[in-house]
């Protein structure tokens, strides 16, 4: 084996991640929360916890894992354990119902998603540990299920919307069934399952189809090579009453197929809206690539409506307002209806986010610093010789490309550093590999004062 073969092969860590397979109980796939709300990150965390519980065995009443390993397997990109704790609390507060049928007997079960969770933080230099348990009534069915679907954590983690993550698992479940047809349920049931929401009472199907289902179908089709899904509508008269999905196995695709622009899961309209409210292009692309689609659109809607509201003081920074709204979950609500996608016809109430905290102000400074460093990296790259540029790009491909989201990696292979989608990841990597020393808070404050970004009292 030559040197080139060694450097182009995936790392052992990547191989392990690609083969992590969860035996997920069929009744745990299309779960409909009856209280609380499920998110994309909570689903990733849940799958990762269940994967490790199955490795440890059904006889263990309490499961234990290094927190760093959970964070890696859940593809959680932050070191902020408070965010992780928040999602764990949400899972504990979420009541779910599972309905199963066998030999004509239907069984209904209502329970928590997860039981007691403990995070031990022993101090600097020592590994944090998480322990958790499942309600006794469902532990064996979860950890050692009789009927289950194999779910690859790597593929599931690539999904960037909750609805796509659910449809991927549903597709995996019914791919090997004789008719390759999913369950057939009413529209409200599907709306709750695909959004993770428990408060849906009525649905405008047009918007559910356009904003949730259609986008999720494209995403699933783009990010996995095994199957696609086709929506089947069951009507009573002209009204769509029930839905199900047909699973369509994929044949071997031509290599050029991955560059099909029609399969690009990136919505450049959304990226454009982010830029319009004040985010730099690179930040807008990164935010789009790493944020749940539903949360992103909700926060964007709130900011855009706030910007149009002439009765309130003008925002000092729409971008900072957006980040604060996204972080704290502020959104546009519709008090007269709990339906999905009715914002165009229903009355809208805006929930105002509070003034930015010091933490938010510092994040704004850090964002400005990052943009400043990326600008420096771009300039440095442009001043390189062609040989240096080639070597730099090759190093990026060997060390970073395999860890990028699939659409970004595809864009890089197609357009390289000229790609609108992938260039921000490349130059951010160039910053990290060039200026390796961590920037201190005092450095950030000095930078902010020199640029007139903020004035600290």
What does this structure look like?
The chain has 19 helices and 13 strands. With 457 residues, it is an alpha+beta fold. The strands form five sheets. Strands 2-4-5 form a three-stranded antiparallel β-sheet. A three-stranded antiparallel β-sheet has the order 3-7-6. The model is unreliable at 1-12, 252-264, 333-339 and 341-355 (pLDDT under 50).
Q: Kindly report how far apart the N and C termini lie.
A: 62 Å
Based on secondary structure, the structural category is alpha+beta
Task: Classify the oligomer.
Answer: single chain
How many beta-strand elements?
Answer: 13
Poorly predicted ranges:
1-12, 252-264, 333-339, 341-355
Strand-residue proportion: 15-25%
- On the 0 to 100 scale, the average pLDDT is 78
Draw up the topology in text.
Layout: H1 3-8, H2 12-19, E1 21-25, E2 32-35, H3 40-56, E3 63-66, H4 67-73, H5 81-93, E4 95-102, E5 105-112, E6 117-120, E7 129-132, H6 136-143, E8 148-152, H7 153-158, H8 162-174, E9 185-186, H9 187-195, H10 205-223, E10 227-236, E11 239-249, H11 268-276, H12 281-290, H13 293-308, H14 318-328, E12 332-333, E13 349-350, H15 358-382, H16 386-399, H17 406-415, H18 423-434, H19 441-451
Antiparallel strand pairs: 1-8, 2-4, 3-7, 4-5, 6-7, 9-11, 10-11, 12-13
